[in-house]
Each structure stands twice: as C-alpha cells, then as structure tokens.
Amino acid sequence: GQQLNQSPQSMFIQEGEDVSMNCTSSSIFNTWLWYKQDPGEGPVLLIALYKAGELTSNGRLTAQFGITRKDSFLNISASIPSDVGIYFCAPQINSGGGADGLTFGKGTHLIIQP
Amino acid sequence: DGGITQSPKYLFRKEGQNVTLSCEQNLNHDAMYWYRQDPGQGLRLIYYSQIVNDFQKGDIAEGYSVSREKKESFPLTVTSAQKNPTAFYLCASSMGQTDGYTFGSGTRLTVV
Lengths: 114, 112
What we know:
The structure holds two protein chains of two kinds. By secondary structure, chain A is mainly β. Chain A has no helices and ten strands. Chain A has a five-stranded antiparallel sheet, with no helix packed on it. In chain A, strands 2-10-9-4-5 form a five-stranded mixed sheet, with no helix packed on it. In chain A, 37% of the residues are buried. By secondary structure, chain B is mainly beta. Chain A binds chain B through residues 6, 9, 31, 33, 35, 40-45, 48, 50, 88, 92, 94, 96, 98-107, and chain B through 6, 30-31, 33, 35, 40-43, 45, 48, 50, 56, 58, 90, 92, 94, 96-98, 100-106, 108.
C-alpha cells in the first residue's frame, strides 16, 4: 500500500516566523490538497494543487506540487496566532472510478509561542 | 447558507451501548464520508458513500455501520463491537472526485 509521510509532526515557533512542512509518498498522485484544522473543529481546505510543478499562493500560504508527483510542501510566512492548528496534506489519485475517500497525512501540529 | 452539520457536538455513552452520530448536508453533494481522528493518528476513513443506497467500507470499518437512505443524510452507528470507540468523529461531503471535501465540525464521543 501507499505510504504517506508528513513532517514535521509538530512545530513550536515564535510569532512572525516562517513555517515549512511537507508530505512525501511512495505513490504518484494527480492532486494534492492541504487542509487546516482548528482545535475542536473540522478541517478546512486551504489550497488545492492539480498539476506537477504547480506553485500556488493563498495570502501568506504557499504550496507546491512536486515535479515527481510524489510530494508537496506548504509554507506559511510571518506566522500569526490564528495560524495555530493542525495542517494535513491529502493527495488524490483521481482514477475515474468514483469519489473514494481521501487519505490524509498524520498532520503537522503548529504551536505559536508568545 | 449551505453546509454540513454534525450532531451532537459531545456525546457520552456507557460501554456496551450502540450510539448513532448524525451527519446532514444541504450542499447537494453526492459523496459523503466518515472519518475517525485520534491523537497522532491523523484522519482514518471508516465508511463512505458515493450515491444514495450505496456505501463502502473504509480502512477501519469494523464495529461501525452506516446507512444512506437520503442524499442529505449519512448517519454513523458505533456499535458495541467497536473495541475503542472514544474518539473525535468527522463527517465530510464532496461533489465529485476532484473536489475538496467539506467537513462538519465533528462529534467527540466518549465511552465510559
């Protein structure tokens, strides 16, 4: 089966610092999605990547779909307190067989120290 | 406004009792999903349904059951056969394969 590795597992940073996290897999994917989960809530989609090499920004967030189609990274610039939460990657194959369940990385827990 | 609603937010049950978690969406999405979240485990797929009256097991379906009698509703029953039911349960829906998921706000189930 496919292996999906998300790192780091947790990050302790100071407000204003930049953040970088990534996901790597043993399989090739057609889509990479990045989600953020606030404490006690459901995840919310941040960025969707549909093409190898694609670099997409959403405000202070930047994500890239790796050229090999086996990895993706998410960067957050100038972190603020509301960035606290768990970030998940969710790659997708899009095989045409229907809306199967997404596989999620184990998450990166972002903690901002005052 | 369209969205996906899970209820209740917190649920307590005694060991050995079945319990049903509600999930309703008014987004007209075809597909619906149930995930379980444990600390350090990420999100694990329990069941999913692509259309009404059809559903498939996910990675950790043992001890759970679902139904999809209406497009809007996908309730999850945690049965007494589930050995470790205490967890945060998330329901999601999507229109199609390439779309992201819309998640509910979750139900935290505690079995004592």
